[in-house]
Amino acid sequence: MTKKYGNQPTNFFWSSHDNNALRRSYLMNKLRNNYQTVNFSSLKVNVEEFHRVQTEAREASSAKMRLKVK
Questions:
Q1: DSSP letter, residue 39
Q2: DSSP assignment, residue 22?
Q3: What ranges in 1-46 are assigned the alpha helix state H?
């Protein structure tokens, strides 16, 4: 995300997310502390399933959101 959007500072009062560097740091610490025994190089990747989910996510994000009001 940082490569694509840059590492923009966040506004303490108005933002609901930390900046990319802080989020990455948190996630890397979480991986190091909670998943020390996992051999990530042995994990299998299902490329077809990834592309299916990726396509669905793109279609959902590009579709117009509609709210139903009763």
A1: -
A2: H
A3: 2-5, 20-34
Give pLDDT, residue 41.
Answer: 84
Cβ burial, residue 24 (10 Å; 0-12/13-18/19+): middle
Q: Report the predicted TM-score, pTM, of the whole model to 2 decimal places.
A: 0.43
CA 13, chain centre distance (Å)? 22
Low-confidence ranges of the chain (pLDDT < 50): none
* Encoded tokens for 7: 């590492």
Where do the structural domains in the chain lie, given as residue ranges? 2-62
CA–CA distance, 14 with 52 (Å, rounded to integer): 34
Separation of alpha carbons 70 and 63, rounded Å? 22
